[in-house]
Amino acid sequence: MVKRPILALIHILESFTEWTGKLISWLTLFMVLVVVAVLVLRNIFGFSAIPLQESVTYMHGIVFMLGAAYTLKHSDHVRVDVFYHRFSHRKKALVDMVGFLILLLPVCIFLIVYSLDYVIFNWKIKEGSSQPGGLPYLYILKTLLLALPITLIIQGTAQFLHNLAYLLGWKPLPHGAEEDTATAPQVTGDKELHHG
């Protein structure tokens, strides 16, 4: 049956996004520690640590580019919501599915196609830092231009399948609805308590 493989695939894709998001979130702590170290070395010891300074840029790039899919998974992207919050779960699922097909997926494919030759060229020449003594791995950092759309496609596909599974009756709620119900205030219960 098709149901079981699709539900398993949703779990695998969303687990990948969750795992990578939690893993790279630790880089924010390391960024703070490295920035403090750079400031101490520069202002107290008069030592300019270029590799450390550049490592902050690398970590920031990784957090921003690879954290986008994790942010998408938890519906934390900035959203101009005029009508969406009033929609039923079914309409929200349909809107999210259409949004993936006509917005997210084409933009991600465009980014991959547009960046692929550039990233390959940088790997061929092994581009490094323009600063003396800087990190020699700029080509790896530029690979994030491909990692961003790929991870977004992975999470977008998971959400698309999750919503499809909901519409087919295989899941009780569409993607993101669990978080909405968990964080929503229990107004009905309070009213019943006051009237009871």
From TrEMBL:
GO terms for molecular function: transmembrane transporter activity. It is found in: Cell inner membrane. Pfam families: DctQ. GO terms for cellular component: plasma membrane. Its main location: membrane. Residues 31-161 form the Tripartite ATP-independent periplasmic transporters DctQ component domain. Belongs to the TRAP transporter small permease family. Part of the tripartite ATP-independent periplasmic (TRAP) transport system. This is TRAP transporter small permease protein. It comes from Kangiella koreensis (strain DSM 16069 / JCM 12317 / KCTC 12182 / SW-125). The lineage of its organism: Bacteria, Pseudomonadati, Pseudomonadota, Gammaproteobacteria, Kangiellales.
